[in-house]
Design a protein that fits this description.
globular; Transferase(Phosphotransferase), domain 1; 21 strands; 18 helices; 7-stranded mixed sheet; Phosphorylase Kinase, domain 1
């Protein structure tokens, strides 16, 4: 940490009410300390359903899993007292120091540690303040994070309801100019005689020297290195990526002091020993990419086993608040995609990386992906034009859709065209209105996606329909309002909180017994009467899903057998005639058709299997 001014010892209750207090201490160039007893206190408090219990669980898991380093001296060089220990951890990307003293009760230990090491005690307990002050300890009373006006940054904050940080308001930062055309001057390489690497030092224009540590990551543009500051990393570009335009763009970006938790904005450019531009420093992100942690069902359930649907909504709102902050400053992200977003177990936070690709003034975002590109921009060269906020709203809606339908793009279809063709035609496959000809939903993907869509509240489905079918894009502010209402309905139990709902939403629910397993479940009264009129009993969603999975598995096995017997004549076999429908009330099977190009042969009569065909 550079020239730290103050050491702050944070009371456990303050941390529980305001976990982002550590980040704010760091942003104000201070050092955040906790008593090591905090882990025992959190472990005792994490049981329960109240918000503070859930906060305790989130913080306990984060601290317990954090990488730790045992220190012999305080960061300012002071020696530790006999028997005391000091450990450095990382919490949400920011350093925090745990001071331990044996055989001390929690409250007296705080006072003793603050007194013995000249640390300011931050607490909300006025009795504790009085005791500390009587011993000459400096005390600051915590009054809570600075809240944004209602309707701006409040609302759902994940299953833990973690308190919001006093995030810097974008209106206090001069916005960038709005340009009408990309930079016209020709680009070219900058002269760089040597690129620094691990173990070497770079410097900033202000003269600060930074030792490059181990590699954190490497990509097509450059290499990310650790620095002595745990919450900061340094990006060194590859030689062929160092151009005049890139340097001018990074210099423009660092001209605004943008400090926002979760936004990895360049803070200073860095130079090699010859004074040549080689990269920049930025805040360090935490977590895993959305792509690698959320967009495959078993991976999502394994990575975040405690998550419910409200966590997905919380993540959407955190993402939207970043976008709103950036748009207020006339910054366009451009390349919105799940590889540039990082998440942790705390669903109220999301990290945005690769900020140097953002569109700023007349410097365009040179990259993008088809799924997040508006219909009117499909097939164009990303670096040849400037995107508008209206263009970005399409990408924003796409990202929200893929959060709520984990990993499934909105235009993905069952047997449909290419993503680019579907987007250009605005062929959104999910049914919203009762227009069988235009909105039949026949190509909606199979699996859990239609059940997720069915369980979304009407305003959420309407907003997606307006964007992806009618090309009427929704503002960020309106999206936040819609999703907060969704969050409220989840908290009240009006809507299914399952990540992957097992059944469709029922508008006329009635309790019924499953005709297969006998379990009680909620059924549509209208459908129940219709099926009973045919002398059948419907199955519960679990039995239906198992039957569908077995049907698909056997269909795959059948096709494999057909491929193996291709070119060889077999006796005819009609599985449709020998197989029951997947569940009572399902469409009766028709004649099974062989795959295109096959001989039409089926497995030999000696092969025994059970399959269902719709």
């Amino acid at each position: 940490m550079d020239n730290p001014r103050e050491k702050i010892l944070i009371d456990t209750r303050v941390l529980l009410d305001d976990p982002d207090v550590i980040a704010r201490v760091r942003r104000r160039n201070g050092m955040a300390f906790l008593s090591a007893a905090v882990l025992d206190e959190l472990a005792l408090m994490k049981q329960g359903e109240a918000a503070i219990n859930k906060n305790a669980g989130v913080i306990f898991r984060a601290l317990s899993a954090a990488r730790s380093t045992r220190l012999q001296l305080l960061p300012g060089g002071e020696a530790l007292r006999g028997g005391d220990t000091l450990t450095q951890l990382e919490f949400r990307g920011d350093p925090v120091f745990l001071l331990a003293r044996q055989n001390s009760r929690a409250a007296p230990a705080l006072i003793e540690l603050a007194r013995d090491y000249g640390i300011i005690l931050l607490t909300r307990d006025r009795d504790l303040k009085a005791r500390a002050a009587s011993l000459g300890v400096k005390v600051a009373i915590w009054t809570g994070p600075q809240r944004a006006p209602e309707g701006r940054h409040g609302g759902l904050r994940g299953s833990g309801s973690l308190a919001a940080a006093d995030e810097p308001a974008s209106h206090n930062i001069p916005p960038f100019a709005l340009s009408s055309a990309p930079i016209a001057e020709p680009d070219g390489p900058v002269v760089v005689h040597r690129l620094p690497s691990s173990g070497e030092t770079v410097r900033t224009p202000a003269g600060r020297r930074i030792l490059l540590g181990a590699r954190v990551n490497a990509g097509g543009e450059g290499v990310i290195f650790e620095t002595p500051a745990p919450a900061e990393v340094c990006k060194i570009y590859h030689r062929d990526k160092l151009t005049r335009h890139r340097r001018r763009k990074i210099e423009l970006m660092v001209s605004r002091k943008i400090e926002r938790p979760g936004l990895c904005w360049p803070t200073e450019i860095v130079l090699n020993d010859a004074g040549e531009f080689v990269g920049y420093v930025m805040p360090r992100a935490s977590g895993r990419t959305v792509q690698s942690s959320m967009f495959v069902k078993p991976v999502l359930e394994r990575t975040f086993p405690q998550w419910k649907r409200r966590d997905l909504v919380s993540l959407c709102i955190a993402f939207l608040e970043h976008i709103r902050f950036l748009h207020d400053l006339n910054i366009i992200v451009g390349d919105i995609n799940p590889l540039n977003l990082l998440v942790t177990e705390d669903s109220s936070r999301i990290y945005m990386v690769d900020a140097d690709s953002f569109q700023v003034e007349h410097f365009p975002c040179p990259v993008g992906t088809v799924n997040f590109t508006a219909p009117e921009l499909q097939g164009t060269h990303y670096g040849k034009y400037l995107r508008s906020k209206e263009h970005e709203l399409f990408a924003v809606a796409t990202m929200i859709f893929m959060f709520l339908h984990p990993g499934k793009p909105p235009y993905s279809q069952q047997g449909g065209g290419s993503p680019m063709d579907n987007i250009k035609a605005m062929d959104f496959p999910y049914r919203f209105v009762k227009d069988e000809e235009s909105y039949c939903g026949k190509n909606a993907p199979q699996g859990p996606w239609q059940r997720i869509w069915s369980n979304l509240p009407y305003p959420v489905r309407e907003t997606f329909h307006n964007t992806f079918r009618l090309n009427r894009r929704t503002s960020v502010d309106e999206w936040i309002k819609v999703l907060r209402r969704y969050g409220y309905s989840l908290e009240k139990g009006y809507t299914s909180d399952e990540l992957f709902p097992t059944g469709f939403k029922i508008l006329d629910p009635i309790e019924n017994s499953c005709g297969k397993c006998g379990a009680r479940y909620m059924e549509s009264e209208q459908r129940l009467r219709h099926v009973q009129a045919q002398g059948l009993r419907p199955w519960c969603p679990d039995c239906v899903n198992r039957a569908n999975l077995e049907r698909m598995a056997n269909q795959s096995l059948l096709e494999t057998r057909q491929a193996e017997s291709l070119g060889r004549k077999r006796s005819g076999f009609n599985p449709a005639a020998a197989s029951p429908p997947p569940y009572p009330g399902a469409p009766r099977p028709g004649k099974a058709q062989p795959p295109a190009g096959s001989s039409g042969a089926f497995p030999s009569p000696g092969f025994t299997f059970t399959t269902w065909f719709k």
